[in-house]
Here is the input.
Amino acid sequence: MKRFIKLVIFLLSLTSFAQVAPLENHTWYLEKLVINGNDFLPPSAYQNSYTANFANNADFIFLAACYPVDGTLTYNQNQNFNINFAGYPLDCDGLSQQVIDYDLKIINDYVNTNAPNNPFSYSFTYQPNYIVLTVTNANGDQAIYRNQQLGISSNDKSEVNLYPNPATNSFQLDINAGSNIKTVRIFSVNGKEVMHFKQPQGSYNVSQLSPGIYFVKIEGEYVKNNMKLFKI
Here is the structure.
């Protein structure tokens, strides 16, 4: 009997891991929000700036062009989770009202950072070349993601890569020629600006930052981008 009970517990733990693992093993790119039955697509120039990450330490991040949301969650049975805390930085300089309004839909309508719309359920649809993640809140609103970047025109947005990430002492930016970076600003997860580079650098020194998660806001003549930085 004891062996049987241990086996059941073991199998249940494997089932729970199987549910959560695909959620945590990818960066998810937002395809659309579905609120009150209406589809809302991300602003085209920022199509791949809206991502979701779910970490092994039960933290989550909804990265957005303007107001990234971060917090903590607890996994429940049947592929559900509750958001225990959610917050966002109070900074949105230089972006259009369209982008601000879209971010506010995530903050107010979908997540509801004041009183999260718990529980959130999630499900996967496996396509030949990618996975679709659908996260549904208690109101029936949905955020639909893919585990790969969405196709956009090269004219819509300059491609930016930040490396190495995680970073120990510094990072570099790989960006299309002619994008003309003007400022690079780094924010903590609670929205406090912790570093500000007013000119482009060959290497951005972040050795003074404590280990953790930060948001890097890149602005230039032809590029505006928010990226997540892991400092170790």
About this structure: Confidence is low (pLDDT under 50) at residues 1-18, 152-157. The chain has two helices and 16 strands.
